[in-house]
Design brief:
This protein has 20 helices and no strands. By secondary structure, it is mainly alpha-helical. It has one domain. It is globular and about 70 Å long.
C-alpha cells in the first residue's frame, strides 16, 4: 500500500467523483466576494474618524491584541516571542528587557510578523491581513459543503459563513480567532477528503492542520480527541488496522509541527509549558467573588488576578503556576457554586442567559454593539437551521460528528474558562455549516414535493455525489 494511494476498502472503490456543476466555482467565488465586501465595509466603519475614538482604543487596549501585534514587531527586530508588556515597561525606564513568553501560542503572532516583514505594520493593515484570511476561509467552507453534501450545499455554506456576523467580526479585533477559523476549516476539509478517499497523505494533512489550529489557540488541542480521531475511527469501510494507521500518521504529523514550539517552551521555562502558560491567570480572573455572583457571574474580572502573592524573580511559568494554585484553591472552597457557574458560563456563551449582557461583555473584545446585536438576531435562526442540518445529515446517513465535536469543544472551552463569545468561534463555524446543510436539505425536500420553476435552473443542476460515497459503492452508515 503506497502512502499516496487510497487505503484499500473492504469493498471495491468506484470511480472518482463526477465533475462539479459549472456554477459551483462562480458561486463560491461570489460568496468570497461578498465576504470581502462585508469585511471592507466593516473595517472602514470601525476605523473611520467618527468611530475611531470609540472602538479603536478598545482594540488597542485588549491585552491579547497588544500581545500579538507588539510581539510581532519585536520578532522582526530579532527578539522572538518575548513578553511585550514587560518590554514596554522596562523600555520606558530606559533599560528594555526581552523576557521569553508563551502566554499565547505562536500562530497569530507569526501571521502579524509575516505582515510586518511585508511592510504591513499598522493595526489597520493587520486587520486587512486577517480579513483576507477570512475570505479564504469562506472559499474553503464552500469546498467543505461540496464534499460533505453537494455542490449546492457548498455554495449555500459559503454564503452563510460569509454573512454570519459572529464570524466576519473577528478580523477587526486583531486577535487569533480568524486564524482559528482558517485552520479549523482546513481540518474539516481534509477530514472529508480522507473519508471520501482515504490516503495516508491526507491523514498527514489533517494532523498538520490540527496542529496549526492548536498553535493558534491552545484549547484546540481538543480537536484531535473530539473531532479528528473519532471521525477516522468511524470510517467503518476501513479495517481497524487501517484506521489506527491513519490516526497514528495524523498524530505524528500533529506532534511534528508542534514540536519546535513545545521543545522551545520545555527548554526555556523552569516549569513545564506546552502550548501556552496562561491557564493560571485565566482561572484566577474567572473564579473569584466578582465572577461567582452578580452581573458578572460567569464572566471574568481583571482585578481578581491581583489576589495571588507573586514573589520577585520568577519566570512566566512559575508565576502562572502560583496563580493556577490560588484559583484551584478558590474553586475547591466553593465547589457547588463553581459547578453552577460552569453551567452559567455555557448558557451565557450560547446566548441562552442574559444575551444583552453578553453583548456588552463582548464589546471588551472590540465587537461593536451593533454587530453583536445583528449577530444575536441572526444567531437563533442559524441555531434552528443547524438543527435542521443535523437531522438532514442523519437521515441521509452523512457524516455529522465533526460539527458536533467542534460545538462540544467550544462548549468545553467556555465552561472551563469564562463566557467569552470569541472562545466559541469554532462552534459558530460548525453551526454555520450545519445551517447551510439545513437550507440545502429544505430546498431538496421542496424540489421533491413541489418542484422548481425554470428560473431556478441552478437548483436543478446535477450536484456532485456525497463525499462519503463512491460511485458504485453504498454510502457509509455513520455512528451518531
Amino acid at each position: 500500500m503506497s502512502v499516496g494511494s487510497p487505503l484499500a476498502f473492504n469493498e471495491v472503490q468506484g470511480d472518482p467523483r463526477a465533475p462539479r456543476p459549472r456554477w459551483f466555482v462562480p458561486g463560491v467565488v461570489g460568496a468570497m466576494v461578498l465576504a470581502g465586501i462585508i469585511e471592507a465595509a466593516y473595517l472602514a466603519s470601525i476605523w473611520n474618524k467618527s468611530f475611531t475614538k470609540a472602538l479603536v482604543p478598545l482594540i488597542k487596549a485588549n491585552g491579547d491584541a497588544q500581545y500579538y501585534n507588539g510581539q510581532a514587531q519585536l520578532n522582526t527586530q530579532g527578539h522572538w516571542f518575548v513578553q511585550w508588556l514587560w518590554y514596554v515597561h522596562t523600555a520606558l525606564q530606559g533599560h528594555p528587557e526581552y523576557l521569553p513568553s508563551a502566554s499565547h501560542p505562536p500562530v497569530a503572532t507569526l501571521f502579524f510578523t509575516m505582515a510586518d516583514y511585508l511592510g504591513l505594520r499598522t493595526w489597520m493593515e493587520h486587520s486587512v491581513v486577517l480579513a483576507v484570511l477570512f475570505v479564504l476561509t469562506v472559499g474553503i467552507c464552500g469546498l467543505i459543503g461540496e464534499r460533505a453534501v453537494s455542490a449546492r450545499a457548498g455554495v449555500i455554506c459559503a454564503v452563510v459563513v460569509a454573512s454570519y456576523p459572529y464570524l466576519w467580526v473577528n478580523p477587526g479585533s486583531n486577535l487569533s480567532e480568524t486564524a482559528v477559523l482558517f485552520f479549523v476549516a482546513l481540518v474539516l476539509w481534509a477530514l472529508l477528503r480522507f473519508r471520501a478517499r482515504p490516503k495516508l497523505t491526507t491523514a498527514l494533512e489533517v494532523g498538520l492542520y490540527a496542529a496549526a489550529a492548536a498553535l493558534s489557540r491552545s484549547e484546540l488541542t481538543s480537536l484531535t480527541v473530539l473531532v479528528v480521531a473519532p471521525t477516522m475511527l468511524m470510517a467503518t469501510r476501513l479495517t481497524w488496522r487501517q484506521r489506527i494507521a491513519a490516526v497514528t500518521v495524523t498524530g505524528v504529523a500533529f506532534l511534528a509541527l508542534s514540536a519546535p514550539w513545545l521543545i522551545r517552551n520545555q527548554d526555556t521555562f523552569k516549569r513545564s509549558v506546552w502550548y501556552s502558560d496562561q491557564i493560571g491567570v485565566t482561572l484566577l480572573d474567572a473564579n473569584c467573588p466578582q465572577t461567582y455572583s452578580g452581573y458578572y457571574a460567569g464572566w471574568w474580572w481583571g482585578a481578581c488576578g491581583l489576589r495571588a502573592d507573586i514573589p520577585a524573580g520568577l519566570d512566566e511559568s512559575q508565576v502562572d503556576h502560583i496563580r493556577e494554585q490560588v484559583a484551584i484553591h478558590y474553586i475547591e472552597a466553593h465547589k457547588v457554586r463553581a459547578a453552577e457557574i460552569v453551567a452559567l458560563r455555557v448558557l451565557r456563551a450560547w446566548n441562552f442567559y442574559d444575551p444583552n449582557a453578553q453583548v456588552l461583555f463582548d464589546y471588551q473584545d472590540a465587537r461593536p454593539h451593533w454587530v453583536s446585536y445583528l449577530a444575536l438576531a441572526e444567531y437563533y435562526e442559524i441555531l434552528a437551521l443547524s438543527v435542521v442540518g443535523v437531522v438532514g445529515l442523519v437521515r441521509r446517513k452523512l457524516l455529522v460528528w465533526p460539527y458536533l465535536g467542534l460545538i462540544a469543544g467550544a462548549t468545553f472551552a467556555v465552561a472551563s474558562t469564562f463566557s467569552n463569545g470569541r472562545y466559541r468561534v469554532e462552534g459558530d463555524l460548525a453551526m454555520a455549516l450545519l445551517a447551510g446543510y439545513g437550507i440545502e436539505w429544505l430546498v431538496q425536500r421542496a424540489r421533491r414535493e413541489h418542484g422548481v420553476s425554470l428560473t431556478d435552473s441552478w437548483l436543478r443542476a446535477p450536484s456532485a455525489p456525497s463525499s462519503l460515497t463512491t460511485a458504485g459503492a453504498p454510502s457509509e452508515p455513520v455512528a451518531h
